[in-house]
Design a protein that fits this description.
Elements: E1 2-10, H1 15-31, E2 36-42, E3 51-58, H2 61-68, E4 85-94
Antiparallel strand pairs: 1-3, 1-4, 2-3
């Protein structure tokens, strides 16, 4: 299994707008995606008010690539969030049981 960690830094002043997208669109989308075993969404804390994240556990690399394409190491974003996001990072790990 593959652990995919996606982190977003939201543009200053766009936190509320991104939060709506995160809760209403991104979380339901990821939870309903074929090949995902588990989704752990992370919302901002007081010490990081502009940071959101997802930890996703994917069944295998083929499932991940079926969702994002062969360029799975680039952080893909929904067009609705593009203007709200200052930066994003993506990391992949083999899940250890």
């Amino acid at each position: 299994m593959i652990m995919r960690i996606f982190q977003v830094l939201v543009r200053e002043g766009k936190e509320e707008e991104f939060a709506k997208f995160f809760y209403d669109t991104a979380i339901p989308l990821m939870k309903g995606t074929d090949g995902i075993v588990q989704v752990l969404p992370g919302a901002p804390r007081a010490d990081s008010p502009r940071e959101f994240s997802f930890v996703m556990i994917w069944k295998d690399l083929a499932s991940l690539k079926a969702f994002v394409g062969d360029d799975y190491q680039s952080p893909h974003i929904d067009p609705a969030e593009a203007e709200l996001v200052e930066s994003r990072t993506i990391k992949h790990y083999d899940l250890v049981n």
